Prior knowledge:
The protein has helices at residues 3-15, 20-29, 51-54, 56-72, 90-98, 105-108, 118-128, 201-216, 263-273, 283-290, 292-301, 305-319, 324-327, and strands spanning 18-19, 79-84, 109-114, 132-135, 146-151, 160-165, 168-175, 178-183, 196-199, 219-228, 238-241, 244-246, 256-258, 261-262, 276-277, 281-282, 328-334. It is of the alpha/beta class. It has one domain (3-158, 201-334): Rossmann fold (3-Layer(aba) Sandwich), CATH 3.40.50. The strands form 3 sheets. Strands 2, 3, 4, 5, 10, 14, 15, 16 and 17 form a 9-stranded mixed beta sheet that branches. Helix 4 (56-72) crosses helix 5 (90-98), helix 8 (201-216) crosses helix 9 (263-273) and helix 11 runs antiparallel to helix 12. It is globular. The relative contact order is 0.15. Bound molecules: S-adenosyl-L-homocysteine.
Amino acid sequence: MTPLEKIIGEIIAAEGPMTIDRYMGLCLGHPVHGYYMNRDPFGEKGDFMTAPEISQVFGELIGVWCVAAWAAMGKSTPFNLVELGPGRGTLMADILKATKVMPGFCDAARVHLVEMSPVLRELQKEKLGNAVAWHESMANMPEGPMLLVANEFFDAVPIRQFEKRHGKWLERCIGAEGMGFMPAALDNTQGADGDVIEFTPQRVEIAKEIGQRLAKQKGCALIIDYGHLQTTPGDTLQAVRAHKYVAVTDRPGESDITSHVDFEALGKALAQGGATVLPAITQRAFLLAMGLEQRTAMLSSRADAKTKEILDRGAARLVGEREMGHLFKVMVGTSPDLATPYPFGMP
Ligand code: SAH
């Protein structure tokens, strides 16, 4: 039994079964035993691999995108360069490296990182130095023009799940016996028995706040994650440990629990906040349009055989149709008066 399993068991004994979002919030963010709070989960030796850790080209191309977006904003100076859930800080480091080519960009950028994990904050500090500010949430971040990036952040935001059983919607929960159901005040007559729908109130709140900030001041938000373009029923909750799927209830606090991002719902929340939202595109379409192949070829041309292989394999993984290319989507929200940033809104 993990220490967190014991704590969760005690809460359930005292208060009854808990909803999935509360369970997920504890598993990931419990101040002492939460999955993200006390470890570096990335890489071969960790539990999972993310795009910036696969290839430097990922962050470099996002840097190029940021440069163009900043130009479209009229080169606001200063502006907030925000990242939600920066992990090891690799993506931000690659963005800052790539944006050096644009005079004024780095001097104008005030880097703000939204990160709950003390361990990951330390790694970010090692990589990015002290000239960045950390926040628990966006709420306390200063206002101002903003470029925001979030890669594999929204999948980690806790969700609620409902399942239709015998003609009635019930909320999924974790009780003394593991996964179970509790009555739900869900007034939805649609759906068939066995359907699962996911609600993400916390995700909606964060997206709405991004939208509100974009409505007030110039800016763009680039959101990348695995998920689907349209709201569809389905159970997408998953737990991963050491690169393998495990049960969500297996060793709480020791595996990464996430769900797929419903980009339709995310877009609606951004728009509700006041942003202009363009239809999401696949990571494959985004990275190829940004020049993944050209940049990889350029780096390869001056690399040794082993590095070349790593670069090629990394690029293939990022855009491969059966790898990350189609599963991952990219969505952008902008201030209402901003020109549509390339490559969104292209025919
Ligand atoms: N973007 C990084 C890391 C993705 S993992 C990459 O692509 O490699 C998710 C990141 O979000 C971690 O840094 C985790 O600590 C952070 N995180 C997850 N939920 C969070 C929350 N509710 N508030 C702040 N940070 C959170």
